[in-house]
């Protein structure tokens, strides 16, 4: 689901601090020769993205264009006015923007255009492979057929492979404030598209919506052959119990965000033992406040030996910080070395839900890059 529904529920002030730190980190990275070298290194480095919500890639220009094409009225006369509206300050202001965005996604071509635009951007940053999240319930609940969404997404993926040389798969996310029955119905609708959907996820409002609420749905998904991931957003109510449920009850393959695990050494040990991967989005959710100090989550996870990856989440609503920009932010905030950055890229390929042969190819390209830049 969307950035606002996931993050602002927790801590708006921490988010604001993260955005401020983001600007400082990016400025620092570009201010000297070492920073310039690291930025070039990041953009050129082969990488994969494991956590991007396609609805969160709707840039103002495209939203304006789709609104005009579909006859949807928006409260802006220009793209510039619309872009200015993305400077939200709390959950309510974000939700207004986000829900306005989904109203312009009506036809198969809309979902195609949105997805192809993301793939074009990702390919330009040397993303070789992406796992793209999508939330079908937000569309089917508006009367848009599941097939309309899927046909647009998969056509764009096929064209991305052919024209851009970027491979991708889909991760279907349930909205956790909806019922488990709704999730099960959505899962059943997804089964005919099993060849396109590699995994099942869970996002949106965690309050009173723990992972165990969907235990039967995820068991059904696992039986059907899907990989599993779940959001454990920062500083949510019962966050440590949610992380425990994902690790021990659901036994998901990955956790999206999950920064609060650093507060619980026992859960860190479980995640390391299980090889659980974490998809962390540093622009929006890169810092943890503990004992009066700001803890950089990516740095902390690397130091703890967790399999952490960097992703962009909802880049259109994060000042257009896609995965390369997110890595620049992570480097600046966490004082990451080239070795750390290579570890993050390696983790992204190791955490990807791909065949061993495909993984070997990607890791080989990363190793060739390492030797070239050594």
Automatic annotation (TrEMBL):
Function of the protein: Catalyzes the hydrolytic deamination of adenine to hypoxanthine. Plays an important role in the purine salvage pathway and in nitrogen catabolism.
Quote a single Gene Ontology cellular component term.
cytosol
Q: By its UniProt entry, which NCBIfam families does this protein fall under?
A: aden_deam
Q: Does Magnesium count among this protein's keywords?
A: no
Task: Respond yes or no to whether keyword Metal-binding is given for this record.
Answer: yes
Adenosine deaminase domain mapped to chain residues: 46-361
Co-factor remark: Binds 1 zinc ion per subunit.
Family the UniProt entry places it in: Belongs to the metallo-dependent hydrolases superfamily. Adenosine and AMP deaminases family. Adenine deaminase type 2 subfamily.
Name of the protein described by the UniProt record:
Adenine deaminase
Q: Where does Zn(2+) bind?
A: 51, 53, 231, 313
Native organism is Gluconobacter cerinus
Catalytic reactions on record: adenine + H2O + H(+) = hypoxanthine + NH4(+)
Supply the EC number(s).
Answer: 3.5.4.2
Where does the UniProt annotation place the signal sequence? 1-29
Under InterPro entries, the record lists: A_deaminase_dom (IPR001365), ADE (IPR028892), Ado/ade_deaminase (IPR006330), Metal_Hydrolase (IPR032466)
The residues that hold substrate are 314
Q: Which Pfam families match?
A: A_deaminase
Which cofactors is this protein said to need?
A: Zn(2+)
The Swiss-Prot or TrEMBL record annotates one GO molecular function as: zinc ion binding
Keyword annotations for this protein, in alphabetical order, are: Hydrolase, Metal-binding, Nucleotide metabolism, Signal, Zinc
Q: Which GO terms describe its biological process?
A: adenine catabolic process; hypoxanthine salvage; nucleotide metabolic process
Q: Upper taxonomic classification of the species?
A: Bacteria, Pseudomonadati, Pseudomonadota, Alphaproteobacteria, Acetobacterales
List the residue(s) that the UniProt entry marks as the site Important for catalytic activity. 257
């Amino acid at each position: 689901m969307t950035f606002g529904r996931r993050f602002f529920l927790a801590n708006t002030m921490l988010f604001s601090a993260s955005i401020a730190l983001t600007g400082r980190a990016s400025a620092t990275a570009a201010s000297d020769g070492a920073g310039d070298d690291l930025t070039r290194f990041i953009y050129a480095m082969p990488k994969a993205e494991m956590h991007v919500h396609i609805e969160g890639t709707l840039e103002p220009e495209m939203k304006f264009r789709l609104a005009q094409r579909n006859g949807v009225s928006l409260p802006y006369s220009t793209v510039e006015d619309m872009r200015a509206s993305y400077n939200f300050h709390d959950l309510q202001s974000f939700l207004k923007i986000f829900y306005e965005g989904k109203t312009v996604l009506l036809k198969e071509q809309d979902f195609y255009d949105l997805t192809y635009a993301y793939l074009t951007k990702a390919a330009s940053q040397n993303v070789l492979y992406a796992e793209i999240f999508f939330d079908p319930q937000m569309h089917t609940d508006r009367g848009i057929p599941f097939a309309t969404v899927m046909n647009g997404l998969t056509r764009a993926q096929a064209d991305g492979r052919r024209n851009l040389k970027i491979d991708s798969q889909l991760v279907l996310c349930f909205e956790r404030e909806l019922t488990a029955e709704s999730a099960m119905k959505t899962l059943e609708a997804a089964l005919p598209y099993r060849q396109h959907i590699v995994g099942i996820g869970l996002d949106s409002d965690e309050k009173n919506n723990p992972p165990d609420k969907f235990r039967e749905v995820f068991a059904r998904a696992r039986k059907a052959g899907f990989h599993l991931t779940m959001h454990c957003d920062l500083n949510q109510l019962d966050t440590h119990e949610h992380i425990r449920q994902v690790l021990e009850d659901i036994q998901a393959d990955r956790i999206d965000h999950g920064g609060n695990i650093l507060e619980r050494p026992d859960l860190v040990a479980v995640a390391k033992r299980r090889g659980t991967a974490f998809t962390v989005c540093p622009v929006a959710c890169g810092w943890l406040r503990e004992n009066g100090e700001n803890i950089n989550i990516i740095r902390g996870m690397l130091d703890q030996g967790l399999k952490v990856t960097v992703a962009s989440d909802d880049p259109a609503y994060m000042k257009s910080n896609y995965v390369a920009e997110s890595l620049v932010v992570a480097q600046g905030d966490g004082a990451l070395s080239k070795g750390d950055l290579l570890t993050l890229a390696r983790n992204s390929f190791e955490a990807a839900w791909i065949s061993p042969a495909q993984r070997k190819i990607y890791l080989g390209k990363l190793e060739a890059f390492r030797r070239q830049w050594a």
